[in-house]
């Protein structure tokens, strides 16, 4: 661990857990990454293990913030760098050219599965689209709209049932204008043989997708999603800082990166707010944080509850500690935008995206926002992947060796002073040009839509 001069704990590189650098009195803040991660609940002696048995969070309710900007100088990169991508008719760029089946309602998941099995199209089952009301249904529609419009899909079949709340006619009002060659619709109740009709439409879409060929496009067109899951004590010192450097590099090329998992900003949000490009973005960041805290309290849940059993086993003691490691994925670039559910990336630079830390919900939100690739750091390991390439970056070498069928990139050499920034960047370019990630090779592609409402 690179010790900040303020830190009073160190990381044991054998197990990722914290140990006191000096005597710490009860009530004194525990400092890691130069910031408090909680306070001691008993006296802690120098060299003693610091974890859940002797540390408690400092987090509570909503806070008041003041805009006090602090920006960093990021070295610009060569804007002429290109990669081979698919340029769509509307000017969007994709890095894959698959046909997707997007279902308006969970009732037709198995129909979509049969069509996909026969055609090779990709489908993403979910249980929503009916028996939802108000904002809850709107969130579902906006996320599905993001999938339909995603440039990684060369063609899309929108498959509905016919009687659902989110039926195709209703969904079309949210979806807006589409290219009828690229997007086709099918109500299963309207077809005598819904599977056969779906296969026919997918074949037409595949013929259309085949008209696109890879061509050089600038790296400034790349949109990268940032996510972590199953963290450990190494997350904030290997994989997350590495992804942060990669994020800054992509943005220096003119590209875009998106950081989500709002609860995993709690306790570190002030560092992001200080990088808000202007006061408007700062105010949006404040609302992002406080609105999510209000969501917790509205459901009678404590704001500071987050580190999972796996996180704790890996050495993470409090939400502040998780958050201070988590936000490092956003590097040091300015925050240029704050996105809500269903919003799509419109600005080059770093954006914050509303949503929980739940792995599948987060990767779905990122996909719907338009990212081409998701960089997913993990210290515990997970096979989960989204509709877009989901790059698993191991925080420690043991995980990279044990779960090589899950892990795409090993960040552990950064402990030995190798920054790996250029290596990860070149790997991302190869993925953008078609190299498959482990989630793609094993067909681990899932979605989960955020739900906050009544089910009829």
Sheet with the most strands: spatial strand order: 16-17-15-14-18-19-20
Question: What can be said about the biggest beta sheet?
Answer: 7 strands, parallel
pLDDT averaged over residues: 95
Strand fraction equals 15-25%
Tell me the total number of β-strands: 20
Cα Rg: 22 Å
Extract low-pLDDT stretches: none
H/I helix tally:
13
What is the helical fraction, as a range of percent? 25-40%
How many individual domains? Answer: 3
Shape: globular
Distance between the termini: 51 Å
Alpha-beta content class: alpha/beta
Structural description of this entry:
The protein is an alpha/beta fold. It folds into three domains: 9-56, Archaeosine Trna-guanine Transglycosylase, Chain: A, domain 4 (Roll), CATH 2.30.130; 98-209, Rossmann fold, CATH 3.40.50; 218-441. The chain has helices at residues 109-119, 134-148, 168-175, 194-209, 239-252, 269-273, 279-298, 309-313, 319-326, 359-368, 397-402, 421-432, 438-441; strands at 9-11, 18-20, 29-32, 35-40, 49-50, 55-56, 82-87, 93-94, 98-103, 122-123, 153-160, 183-187, 215-218, 223-228, 256-259, 335-339, 349-353, 373-378, 390-394, 409-410. The strands form five sheets. A seven-stranded parallel beta sheet has the order 16-17-15-14-18-19-20, with helices on both faces. Strands 10-9-11-12 form a four-stranded parallel beta sheet, with helices on both faces. α1 (109-119) packs across α4 (194-209) and α5 (239-252) crosses α12 (421-432). The longest helix is centred in the middle third of the chain and has 20 residues, at 279-298. The radius of gyration is 22 Å and the shape is globular. The model has no long low-confidence stretch (mean pLDDT 95).
């Amino acid at each position: 661990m690179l010790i900040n001069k303020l830190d009073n704990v160190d990381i044991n590189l054998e197990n990722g857990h914290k140990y006191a650098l000096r005597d710490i009195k009860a009530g004194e803040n525990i400092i890691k990454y130069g910031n408090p991660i909680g306070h001691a609940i008993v006296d802690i002696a120098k060299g003693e293990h610091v974890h859940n048995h002797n540390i408690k969070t400092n987090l509570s309710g909503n806070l008041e913030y003041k805009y006090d900007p602090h920006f960093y100088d990021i070295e610009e990169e060569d804007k002429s760098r290109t990669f081979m991508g698919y340029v769509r008719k509307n000017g969007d760029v994709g890095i894959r050219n698959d046909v997707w089946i997007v279902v308006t309602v969970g009732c037709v998941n198995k129909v979509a599965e049969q069509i996909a099995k026969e055609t090779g199209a990709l489908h993403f089952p979910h249980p929503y689209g009916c028996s939802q009301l108000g904002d809850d249904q709107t969130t579902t529609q906006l996320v599905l709209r993001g999938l339909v419009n995603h440039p990684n899909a060369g063609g899309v079949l929108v498959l509905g049932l016919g009687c659902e709340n989110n039926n195709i006619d209703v969904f079309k009002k949210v979806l807006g204008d589409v290219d009828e060659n690229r997007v086709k619709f099918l109500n299963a109740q309207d077809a005598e043989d819904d599977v056969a009709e779906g296969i026919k439409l997918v074949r037409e879409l595949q013929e259309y997708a085949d008209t696109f060929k890879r061509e050089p496009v600038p790296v400034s067109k790349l949109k990268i999603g940032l996510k972590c899951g199953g963290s450990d004590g190494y997350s904030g010192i290997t994989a997350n800082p590495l992804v942060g450097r990669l994020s800054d590099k992509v943005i220096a090329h003119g590209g875009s990166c998106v950081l989500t998992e709002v609860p995993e900003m709690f306790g570190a949000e002030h560092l992001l707010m200080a990088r808000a490009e202007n006061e408007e973005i700062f105010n949006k960041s404040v609302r992002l944080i406080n609105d999510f805290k209000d969501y917790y309290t509205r459901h009678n849940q404590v704001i500071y509850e987050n580190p999972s059993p796996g996180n704790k086993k890996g050495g993470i003691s409090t939400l502040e500690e998780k958050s201070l490691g988590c936000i490092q994925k956003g590097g040091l670039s300015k925050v240029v935008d704050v996105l809500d559910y269903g919003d799509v990336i419109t600005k080059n630079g770093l954006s914050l995206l509303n949503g929980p830390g739940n792995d599948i919900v987060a990767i779905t939100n990122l996909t719907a926002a338009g990212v081409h690739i998701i960089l997913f750091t993990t210290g515990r390991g997970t096979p989960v992947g989204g509709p877009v390439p989901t790059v698993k970056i191991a925080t420690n070498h043991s995980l990279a060796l044990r779960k090589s069928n899950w892990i795409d990139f090993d960040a552990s050499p950064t402990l030995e002073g190798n920054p790996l920034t250029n290596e990860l960047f070149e790997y991302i370019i190869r993925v953008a040009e078609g190299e498959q990630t482990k989630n793609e090779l094993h067909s681990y592609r899932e979605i989960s839509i955020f739900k906050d409402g009544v089910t009829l």
